[in-house]
Amino acid sequence: MEGNVPDQEQLLQFLRRLKEVFDVCDEDADGFIRVEHLVDLGLQFGQGDEVKKLTRYLDPNAHGKINFKDFCHRVLAIKGCEGILKMAVGPRSVASTQPSVTDNGYIYQVHC
């Protein structure tokens, strides 16, 4: 995805993968990743310092938890392509036939 604008299928595929990662880290399936859990995972894999730095970016207000929308925006910002999500986020049209990835009431939909 770096360097060029992805087509809608690439973007949807990327969002689905982000959702899979998010769901794995959402231990109690309440729609939030606990920062403490991410840090614990980082420590288990010998990446504690790196994960602590990452969590400061993912949770800049130090709330201790991250929802899927914020997770997507910040991961895309890290990759340098936060602008592409703006192209994909919008209200769901009744007539729309485009696939979407949803979480906690947020709808990510690709517009042609």
From TrEMBL:
PROSITE patterns: EF_HAND_2 (PS50222). GO terms for biological process: endocytic recycling; regulation of cytokinesis. SUPFAM superfamilies: EF-hand. Pfam families: EF-hand_7. GO terms for cellular component: cleavage furrow; endocytic vesicle; midbody; recycling endosome membrane. One of its GO terms (molecular function) is calcium ion binding. Coiled coil: none annotated. InterPro entries: EF-hand-dom_pair, EF_hand_dom, Rab11-interacting_regulator. Residues 13-48 form the EF-hand domain. This is EF-hand domain-containing protein. The lineage of its organism: Eukaryota, Metazoa, Chordata, Craniata, Vertebrata.
